[in-house]
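With this grant's support, we have settled on a layout for protein records. A representative record follows, to show the layout.
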Amino acid sequence: MDAIARETAPATAREVIAIRHLSKTYGGTAGGVVALSDIDCAVADGEFLSIVGPSGCGKSTLLKILAGLLQASGGQALLNGSPIQGARKDIGVVFQSPVLFPWRSVLGNVLLPVDVQQLGRDRMTAQAMDLLKLVGLSGFEQRYPSELSGGMQQRVNLARALATDPEVLLMDEPFAALDAQTREFMQAELLKIWTASKKTVLFITHQIDEAAFLADRVIVMGTRPGRIKQEFRIPFERPRALSLKRDPKFLAICDDIWRLIEEEAERINIIRGDGP
């Protein structure tokens, strides 16, 4: 297939996230650890971008900078042309662990950012109920986290991130703690939610087939220092079914991505273990 991306995220769409020569050094510039070096890329309106790379390549550091939780050492991270400085209501974040409050119901957990930002429960409760329906949790509004499976808890986490209707959704390995079967189902569900919500998504994962199945583009990062090694545009039309993962063309793309990561792992002696 020659389709490059879905209609709502063409290559010419406006940039929502712009990352310009971004760098991050821990421990100061003199003798510090360079986590990111000269990261330069953009995410278009409504695009789904996945980032993969070996451990230590700075994926999570990049996401935390985009979330306003870390300050860059150099360069810029922009949202709609405005520098990202501190947490913002128009950026939602989904981390690996749902971190749900056990004393709050499912609905109460989804409404947490509404309460924190004092947006008013009266007008936001109906929206929260709609979000729970969107993530497949209608009827569970008054349940508590201890009554939910891991996959259901992550659905609550996702609904909570969408509660304030952010323009951008940042996701840091949200399915890593799930069993393999639940993870597959959650990938398919995420695509349905993304299609319905029309959010711009930046998704970090270690799982190559997950990255390629979900994304319009996959960026492969290298490490020491963290940098962009190569970009892949995923040439499959949407909607996508999980059966796509058995397509020889899909498997070939995953193999190409894996070879880059394997090369990087060998370069830093993770695989050889023979040290400098």
Q: What stands out?
A: Residues 13-90+168-179+200-209+220-276 form a domain with the Rossmann fold fold (CATH 3.40.50.300). The chain is about 35% helix and 25% strand. The two ends are 44 Å apart (CA to CA).
